[in-house]
Specification:
2 domains; 14 helices; Rossmann fold; alpha/beta; single chain; six-stranded mixed β-sheet
């Protein structure tokens, strides 16, 4: 049976697995300025090799609720849902930035807005200096080669009628990056790299023939096939069994080092965020209320919501005392 949380034993296992790799990653100092404007410290604090890969500034995603005729007569004020409310942050190349918060706080909406799957109400999203919001469809498609996403439910994002090999190769054809023979070779290499061997067997399987963990490995391989620099991970292990979660997290760390990746890692599991991420941004009601290096956030939380969130996790609360 799958679970969304680690057991105490599994958390200890993740500690040893993830910390050793995460400690090798550059961790720029991060700080929260206020509830609606959060940025990292100047680049001079970072190492000379670090650069700002993604810069989000005053990003808003508002939705207006349609009212019935009587409600419109009674009140002329429109009801607005502020799914993302004036969010700002910077993500450095090679960094793993966690985005945590309870369900409905705006994490997934923020990730989709960054990727321009939904257009924002206002604000800017700069990737390698380019404002994605201002790009036309052709230019945006070219940028998306460098920004890929791994979703929570791999079964839902894989075409059940496509063989695994064809599904992984599909982005290569969409972006016209390889011939059929080249694509097959690259897919076989990627299948081997994500641990789906023998390659000849998994290439011709269908998603329905695979376990949840195997499906997520296929989704990761598909995301990496275009050689992106930024991967947005939306709860990538929350639907997997605890032991499989650990394996997938370890794989993601190995791939990060090998392919020089940067992760925006969305999760509601504070234990996963603590041991996987270099820095963590805490979201509440569409806003980033606190953003710090991981250990500083857990040891010295400042915002009342962050303190309540940490205290709500029994194991973490025990570890922090």
């Amino acid at each position: 049976m799958s679970t969304e949380h680690f057991s105490a034993t599994d958390k200890l296992e993740v500690t040893s697995v993830v910390r050793s790799s995460a400690s090798q990653v550059h961790q720029p100092t991060l700080e929260s300025t206020n509830n609606t404007s959060v940025t990292s410290v100047p680049k001079s604090v970072a190492t000379s090799a670090a650069k700002v890969l993604l810069r989000v500034t005053n990003l808003r995603q508002y939705y207006t609720l349609e009212q019935n005729f009587i409600a419109q007569l009674v009140s002329r004020e429109q009801q607005v849902i502020k799914a993302v409310d004036n969010v700002s942050f910077e993500l450095y190349s090679g960094q793993i930035l966690g985005l945590v918060g309870e369900s409905g706080c705006g994490k997934s909406t923020l990730s989709r807005t960054i990727l321009q799957l939904i257009r924002p109400t206002s604000g800017t999203v700069e990737f390698e200096g380019k404002d994605l919001i201002q790009l036309d469809k052709k230019s945006l498609r070219e940028v998306r080669r460098q920004i890929q996403m791994v979703f929570q439910d791999p079964h839902a994002c894989l075409n059940p009628l496509m063989m695994v090999g064809d599904s992984i190769a599909d982005p290569l054809f969409i972006h016209k990056l390889a011939s059929h023979s080249e694509a097959k070779r690259k897919v076989e290499e990627m299948l081997e790299r994500v641990g789906l061997t023998p390659v000849e067997e998994y290439y011709y399987r269908y998603p329905g023939d695979l376990s949840g963990g195997q499906q997520q490995r296929v989704a990761i391989a598909r995301a990496l096939i275009t050689r992106p620099s930024l991967i947005i991970c939306d709860e990538p292990v929350s639907m997997l069994d605890a032991s499989i979660q650990t394996q997938v997290l370890q794989l993601m760390l190995e791939l990060k080092d090998e392919f020089k990746l940067t992760y925006l890692f969305i999760t509601h599991d504070l234990s996963v965020a603590r041991f996987f991420c270099d820095a963590i941004a805490v979201m509440n009601k569409g806003q980033i209320v606190e953003l710090k290096e991981t250990e500083e956030l857990f040891n010295k939380p400042q915002h009342p919501y962050t303190k309540n969130l940490l205290n709500a996790a029994p194991l973490l609360a025990t570890q922090m005392r």
